[in-house]
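User: Can you recover a sequence for this backbone? Please restate the input before giving your answer.

Assistant: Of course. Working from this structure:
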């Protein structure tokens, strides 16, 4: 296990947790760039996601920012579809392409999002639209091993669903439940392939993200709108996404 990879996972966990996310897409990307078998990447990334966002979700809930009654329409379809996405085998080309463009979207969102507390006014949201939106994000989450919060956040901002800390809390919880569901699907798939044991050598990554995630989530709960942290995270994501998209283009062409 390269020590540099452990350090990068620690930093990724701290940066993502500081803005309310888990980091699954970047964990996947770092593993791809280190030559890890792509079939086990989602399992490792989802485990790291769960470790990171569990602490953040607890802190947000304790501080009263988690609005579960308003969030449940996004969750009711996302959980089963995250499991289904985790069960579906995908090619390396599709996996790297989906991951690279997911990271590009995430980086651009963090780089250019400008939402203030005072801008937030509630909009009425039909439950079935929220359920379909959450289901689609959940399916993608399970398929490529991300939590989906990076896609849910811009939707919630567009809908003026709540204040920034409430949206961060919602994304944290969304990532947690969909990572658990997607992980269940991924483990079942790996057991079917007989390669689950390939995950074991990467155990040092889990304590690294535990420490990084706790540090980041404490900062998120206190200083969520730190523009410096958001921009640093965006730069990290955009750099990794560019590396992945270039690799994807080499595979395709």
């Amino acid at each position: 296990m390269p020590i540099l990879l452990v350090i990068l996972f620690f930093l990724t966990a701290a940066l993502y947790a500081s803005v309310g996310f888990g980091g699954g897409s970047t964990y996947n990307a770092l593993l791809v760039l280190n030559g890890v078998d792509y079939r086990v990447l989602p399992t490792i990334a989802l485990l790291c996601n769960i470790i990171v966002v569990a602490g953040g979700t607890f802190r947000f809930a304790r501080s009263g920012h988690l609005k579960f009654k308003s969030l449940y329409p996004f969750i009711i379809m996302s959980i089963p579809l995250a499991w289904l996405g985790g069960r579906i085998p995908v090619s390396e080309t599709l996996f790297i392409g989906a991951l690279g463009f997911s990271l590009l979207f995430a980086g651009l969102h963090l780089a250019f999002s400008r939402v203030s507390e005072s801008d937030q006014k509630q909009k009425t949201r039909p439950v079935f639209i929220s359920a379909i939106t959450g289901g689609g994000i959940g399916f993608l989450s399970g398929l490529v091993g991300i939590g989906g919060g990076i896609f849910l956040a811009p939707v919630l901002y567009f809908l003026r669903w709540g204040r920034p800390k409430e949206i961060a809390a919602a994304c944290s919880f969304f990532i947690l439940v969909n990572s658990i569901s997607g992980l269940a699907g991924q483990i079942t798939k790996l057991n079917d392939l007989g390669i689950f044991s390939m995950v074991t050598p990467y155990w040092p990554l889990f304590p690294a993200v535990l420490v990084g995630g706790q540090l980041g989530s404490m900062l998120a709960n206190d200083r969520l709108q730190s523009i410096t942290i958001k921009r640093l995270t965006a730069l990290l994501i955009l750099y990794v996404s560019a590396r992945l998209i270039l690799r994807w283009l080499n595979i395709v062409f």
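That completes the design. The two ends are 31 Å apart (CA to CA).
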